[in-house]
Design brief:
alpha/beta; Rossmann fold; 2 domains; 7-stranded parallel beta sheet; 6-stranded parallel beta sheet; 15 helices; 13 strands; 42% helix; elongated
């Protein structure tokens, strides 16, 4: 049973698996940190997987963290921790991914604790279930919100809060000697893409774009950073092509090195077919690296007002043409950078925390 209204929540319990370090995990870290800095800060605790980069960064920042064994999606230790913490005192459970939602939803039912959830991806829900029972669902983009409505979540339960980045930290990053460190050519133009090597990110389209531009831009090099199920297939395709000297698959990078690589780029390119929002695009915008991206999911919300070149998903020729334009048309390049520099100011970690804090406040916290 839900606790009585006069026994409202006094702290927030974040539940986030943190098993991989991607944009979503960084958002959990930034949210907890920014909430702790606010004058109206509320007590919070983050339950996450032991030994993860998220747990490490939370601990380094001295944010209250309870780590548990989280080797499978529906972790019994994580569920036990959520139940124990929810019973300790009135709280609000905040789930940050689909597995965490199941655990937070179960803990909520067993303890009478209200719960909310953040949705960061554009994919249709497999089952509406707990998504429709949450007090609020935070969508990181209008595109994610619209998909949730299609999947049966009531619009009045959904709150749009864009993801954000730490502008000061990102803008303070310099490339240094990242090209040399990664074995990339130190001269000539560089196109960079970061992200998972999977079907939805469609990194194979970047190889096709590289082939289209090979003769026109002989010194041009492409660096794809990330790992995923398409890694072996991409390497085999690259070995069978004539692009070995033009494209480097540099693997997974630490977050700071990923920023350094983006800072070293002449163009940031992404060929994704599905994107909740795209914080790597925000990082490129903040670093002054012009962006060519597919208009998938929430990407148009970032690149509005000329903040980047948008192309249709799966249109390799348009992607290649966008890269070529930014390499040859200085006026277009400067226009994109100028627009992006202004637009990224609206996508900060502080603004994201403001939006989430307003959601908490609406639920009595």
């Amino acid at each position: 049973m839900r606790r009585s209204s006069n026994e409202g929540p006094r702290r927030v319990i974040h539940v986030a698996s943190g098993r991989e370090w991607r944009g979503g995990q960084n958002q959990v870290f930034l949210l907890a940190r920014e909430l702790s800095r606010r004058p109206d800060s509320v007590p919070q605790l983050i339950i996450t997987g032991a030994g993860t980069l998220l747990a490490e960064r939370l601990t380094q920042s001295r944010l209250p963290t309870r780590t548990v064994g989280w080797n499978i999606g529906l972790s019994p230790p994580a569920l036990a921790a959520a139940i124990a913490e929810a019973r300790r005192e009135p709280a609000l459970l905040h789930a940050h991914d689909a597995h965490s939602l199941t655990l937070a939803g179960l803990a909520a039912q067993l303890t009478g604790t209200p719960f909310i959830v953040t949705r960061r991806v554009i994919f249709p829900l497999r089952r509406a279930g707990l998504w429709t029972r949450a007090e609020r669902v935070i969508a990181v983009s209008g595109a994610v919100r619209d998909q949730l409505v299609k999947d049966g979540v009531a619009r009045d339960r959904i709150v749009l809060v864009h993801s954000g980045i730490d502008l000061d930290v990102v803008r303070g990053v310099s490339p240094g000697r990242i090209r040399k460190e990664l074995g990339l050519p130190e001269a000539g133009a560089l196109v960079v893409s970061t992200g998972a090597l999977d079907r939805d990110k469609a990194p194979d389209l970047l190889l096709d774009a590289a082939r289209e531009l090979a003769e026109r831009f002989p010194p041009l090099h492409w660096a794809l950073a990330g790992e995923g199920p398409l890694d072996s297939a991409l390497r085999a395709r690259l070995d069978a092509s004539k692009l070995q000297a033009r494209v480097s698959l540099v693997g997974r990078l630490e977050p700071h090195d990923s920023l350094r690589l983006i800072a070293a780029a002449d163009v940031y390119a992404t060929s994704t077919r599905a994107e909740g929002l795209g914080t790597a695009i925000l990082e490129a915008m903040a670093l002054g690296t012009p962006v060519v991206a597919t208009s998938a999911g929430g990407v148009p919300e970032l690149l509005a007002n000329g903040a980047g070149i948008q192309v249709s998903p799966d249109d390799t020729s348009a992607l290649a043409a966008g890269v070529a334009r930014l390499l040859t048309d200085e006026r277009a390049r400067l226009a994109c950078i100028t627009a992006a520099t202004a637009r990224v100011e609206g996508f900060t970690a502080r603004a994201m925390a403001d939006g989430v804090r307003a959601v908490y406040r609406s639920l009595g916290l």
